[in-house]
């Protein structure tokens, strides 16, 4: 399988190269040259597989430069109930991503039902662990084979950082430099990252928002000489490895929620950087019977605005709200470029022209272009949620179903409710556990959220983190000083 850049000005590459390379050298994002199609026979054969075996089947359609036996072993090592053990009481840890019905709907295919797809049972209690644990094992495997090292530069609004650090701590040949928005994450998120004392982990809090941190990551990656000299890698969802691993749980969720491959489902996805829902889009393009992808945003509603109006208008950091679903405080969604590449018929010239407008601080409007009509064929609908909605949803979910959901999942539930249909079940992707956002849970419920074992004294552990200006050169100097050749 060859991978090509959305900007069309980078050489096509194979999976292991883009895994280590991250962003394409022309500033674009890599995508497979075609999406593999799944047949009815594939769906029938995959329905009863374990999560690890399903991951192998799906990943092997995209990865042909790792021997099959090795890829299977990596999947088996990654997707175990011991790694994804932080399940809600009563959920089946062996499923890895259990489906919890809030309302079962009708019949074996749960028409009209409402369910949570539990994705946050891994070591850091957020959906990022689903892909990041795999990435940690893939990085180690490829680096060992090549006798190379990598210095990962990442940006986080709260969850990618800890998931990456837990996946990469102690891995041979890997150092992690993680940029986080100073003072913007929850106390639990800060403690998860900043309490790590491993020699290969460096936490840097930048005095800005997530988008500023993401811009630094892209600027450093676009300095080709620096990137080559310091072997800079990526773990954000700009790295295709993240997106491909996320495709798997759309299939697992579909099988978990239906009894027949004739049935369609809707999937509601709390969205920020568009990485999660982009994986859903690709699963749908592969032939998974997803009727609608419901894109749920918080007050930072750039994506919702696009799906409603056809206008994509990223906001500046000054216009980005600090919200109680902080991991979605994003106004420039990286992976949206991957979707637009598909929307415009995979024409890199169109993507270059649109992103020229975006990168010079502008916007684009697809009305009066053929792409506005084409949009309807991709199955997206959307909505946004506010702090008051979030509190109301957390309260209503607890009252009706006895379940405490996190603030991002609450955004998903709120927007899903507006698009429910008696003909299909809707699965809301549960992207984090409530304990990560304790303050808002207390405000909503006047009680403490459930805290999985092993996290009892997290916030009282000693923390270490460097605070820096939003300045590419300052970050490069820090990397230079900490990379031993
Ligand atoms: C808990 C949580 N929910 C939702 C999102 C949004 O996901 P994405 O950025 O892939 O759209 C994030 C961050 O990415 C997150 O950490
Ligand atoms: N919400 C993320 C932001 C980064 O997204 P990514 O999927 O591109 O890594 C976070 O919590 O850090």
UniProtKB/TrEMBL annotation:
The modification N6-(pyridoxal phosphate)lysine is found at residue 128. InterPro entries: Ser/Thr_deHydtase_PyrdxlP-BS, Thr_synth_N, Thr_synth_N_sf, Thr_synthase-like, Threonine_Synthase, TrpB-like_PALP, TrpB-like_PALP_sf. The keyword Protein transport does not apply. Pfam families: PALP, THR4_C, Thr_synth_N. Its cofactor is pyridoxal 5'-phosphate. It catalyses: O-phospho-L-homoserine + H2O = L-threonine + phosphate. GO terms for molecular function: pyridoxal phosphate binding; threonine synthase activity. Pathway: Amino-acid biosynthesis; L-threonine biosynthesis; L-threonine from L-aspartate: step 5/5. Keywords: Amino-acid biosynthesis, Lyase, Pyridoxal phosphate, Threonine biosynthesis. It comes from the Bacteria. Gene3D superfamilies: 3.40.50.1100, Threonine synthase, N-terminal domain. GO terms for biological process: threonine biosynthetic process. Its EC number is 4.2.3.1. Residues 95-343 form the Tryptophan synthase beta chain-like PALP domain. Residues 2-79 form the Threonine synthase N-terminal domain. The keyword Lyase applies. Belongs to the threonine synthase family. This is Threonine synthase. The lineage of its organism: Bacteria, Pseudomonadati, Pseudomonadota, Betaproteobacteria, Rhodocyclales.
